[in-house]
Design a protein that fits this description.
alpha/beta; 5-stranded mixed sheet; 5 strands
Amino acid sequence: MKRFVVFMMAMLFLLLGCSSPSSIPDLSLDDPRFEGYEPEKSLYYNPESGIKFRVSPMIEATYLAVEMTNRTNDFTNYQKDTPYIETGKERFEEFGDHEFVKLLSSMMSRGYTYDAIPSSIYHFNEDFKLRDDIEINEFTMKRSGGLDNIEKLMAYLKAFRMDSDFDSYFMENKEDYIKMMDTGHHMLTSYKVEEVVEDFYGKPIQNSIITVTPHAKNAYGVSIDLKTGSLEVLPTLGVYDDEEIFINVLVHEISHTYVNPLTAQQGEILAETESLYEPIEKVMSNQAYTTWETTVNEHIVRANTAIMLRDILGETAYKNALARDRERGFEYIDQVVESVSHYIENRDRYPAFKDYHPELMKVFLELN
């Protein structure tokens, strides 16, 4: 009997200590507690190029809270903890039990990770209102627990920023953010990255804003569908001192916005070749590529990126990129590169990448 009582007390302790989205009270974005609060807006670095840079307080506050949860949001292969990240965690340590941090941690334990975090936030404007110019991404909403849950998270993000005076901290770091964006823009323009990407895909980069994320250790190629039919390209990434890594990540994330929609149209080939995923499933899933479609996109994007790096930085960067991809278990990368090279050599027949993508997918049929 005594053992049973101890067991029940332990279980009760665990249950009380584990918050879930439903256990955290609802909070409206229009709650009276927000009266008079005017949130700071993003800092923009507005060059002449079509690719713009910004640092967003919505994204930064969220990624800081991600670090405060001590949960991994993956990927950590781009940068490790930095003095800036550690300083932020120390500065806001007393808010570690804030409802926003608790709700975020609970959602992350249920699959709200990777690109779902920035993608869901981009559904809202900087006044925390759901945007009326976008098509809601149902896949993102599903991973987020539904629109109601995201609106609840946004309300607590608003409360976290107000309660902790995060916006003052954000503005204190304004000069550092501007330096980061200036560094990124310098690399972007000096190597003519925009021109190379547009020429490779045969389509201009439109509505592209790079969100620089000093508090994050990851990078994602997020995009939002606008009701006008165009795409808002919104990669999130850090600015690294290593030019080769920065340009690799940038080209990689922008490439996803071109490649992913095309692959999504190839459901029949994806279904027919899904057995190719089995021998590499473990190594791919360990890197968050948990479906065959995602894995196909990664192979194509990495092949395209390596080839563009050759034009931007030279042969060594091309070889380095492919060597890293082989080492990370991208079993079919060489065959995909060979096919993409055929596209490059026959641009008269294939003016844009979208014209060649169906041919490229046949590589997986041949491998199968």
